[in-house]
Design brief:
The protein is mainly alpha-helical. It has one domain. The chain is 81% helix and 0% strand. It has three helices and no strands. It has helices spanning 5-28, 31-51, 59-81. Helix 1 (5-28) runs antiparallel to helix 2 (31-51) and helix 2 (31-51) packs antiparallel against helix 3 (59-81). The longest helix is centred in the first third of the chain and has 24 residues, at 5-28. The termini are far apart.
């Protein structure tokens, strides 16, 4: 089984964004950064499933995980846009 470079790179970047989001939240108590970090952690889960070769087996779960991740990003951006 060959390593998929694109998916591996996406996983590394998801981990980096998650860590930065958490760090920003811990340092500044910025919930939006935490939400973005969590959403990229969820994207990372789907990349791990792909790298392990379980895409077909967990296709439904991956759709739900990615949908939740996108909804979290939409929520965070909505909250930023309409912040009082």
């Amino acid at each position: 089984m060959a390593i998929d470079v694109i998916v591996s790179l996406n996983l590394i970047l998801c981990i980096a964004i998650f860590l930065l989001g958490y760090w920003c939240y811990a340092k500044r108590q910025n919930q939006m950064a935490l939400f973005v970090g969590i959403s990229f952690a969820l994207f990372g889960i789907s990349h791990i499933i792909t790298l392990l070769g379980y895409t077909a087996k967990f296709e439904g779960a991956m759709i739900i995980v990615r949908l939740i991740a996108y909804l979290i990003v939409i929520f965070a951006l909505y909250k930023l846009a309409f912040k009082k």
